[in-house]
Design goal:
The chain is an alpha/beta fold. It is built from eight helices and five strands; from the N terminus they run βαβααβααβααβα. The two termini are 20 Å apart. The protein binds thymidine-5'-phosphate.
């Protein structure tokens, strides 16, 4: 009998308006079709406490260090309640955002020093990194046009172009720093083209 492959932890990332969330169920379905059990989740959130923190984080103004700490508090709970148990029972985990988002938004966007975020990362998940990070990338004007078509914008979505330039820049910097883990998906492409790219990436796992 062949040994089952180690369950994988896959994260979806990108600036607001990059369209990543619309592809989550597509990727989950691709894996399910291969007989893989999938746990789909998100950050901030993914647990009852995390979802309460999400509401606060997305709608309330706060000190930027408070924001970073609450992102990691939500993540600590998420790891303990959802991610680690799922991987331990053999599920693959797909998370709509993880720690790269904190580096991108609180680091690149809000300019919190990377060294502080690295300390929190070391504290909360010293031994776990995603096996694959799909970075859905679009230029800022494309993302802005998509957001402007949205009815009500949350605290992050209301930020200005220089903030998103910082977020996108940090995502791309991390993709260059960790090339074995990141795949950049050009999200200006049509839905069909993005799905074809995702199908090829997932087939390679
Ligand atoms: P979502 O709209 O993709 O669900 O993400 C919620 C927002 O939270 C999004 O604007 C990015 C932001 N965010 C951070 O600022 N830091 C983080 O660590 C995470 C996970 C999300």
């Amino acid at each position: 009998m062949s040994t089952p492959s180690k369950p994988k932890f896959i994260t979806f990332e990108g600036i607001d308006g990059a369209g990543k969330s619309s592809h989550l169920s597509f990727v989950a379905d691709l894996l399910a079709a291969r007989g893989i059990r999938v746990t789909s989740t998100r950050e901030p959130g993914g647990t009852p406490l995390g979802e309460q923190l999400r509401t606060v984080l997305l709608h309330q103004k706060m000190h930027l260090e408070t924001e970073a700490l609450l992102m990691f508090a939500s993540r600590r709970e998420h790891l303990a309640q959802v991610i680690e148990p799922a991987l331990a029972r053999g599920d693959w985990v797909i998370s709509d955002r993880f720690t790269d988002a904190t580096f991108a938004y609180q680091g690149g966007g809000r300019q919190l020093p990377v060294a502080k975020l690295e300390q929190l990362e070391q504290w909360v998940h010293p031994h776990l990194q995603p096996d694959l990070t799909l970075l859905f990338d679009v230029p800022l004007d494309v993302a802005r046009a998509r957001l402007d078509a949205t009815r009500s914008l949350d605290k992050f979505e209301q930020e200005q172009n220089d903030f998103f330039a910082g977020v996108r820049g940090e995502y791309l910097r991390r993709a260059a720093q960790f090339p074995a883990r990141f795949r950049i998906v050009d999200s200006t492409q049509s839905m069909a083209q993005v799905r074809a790219a995702l199908t090829a990436i997932m087939a390679s796992l």
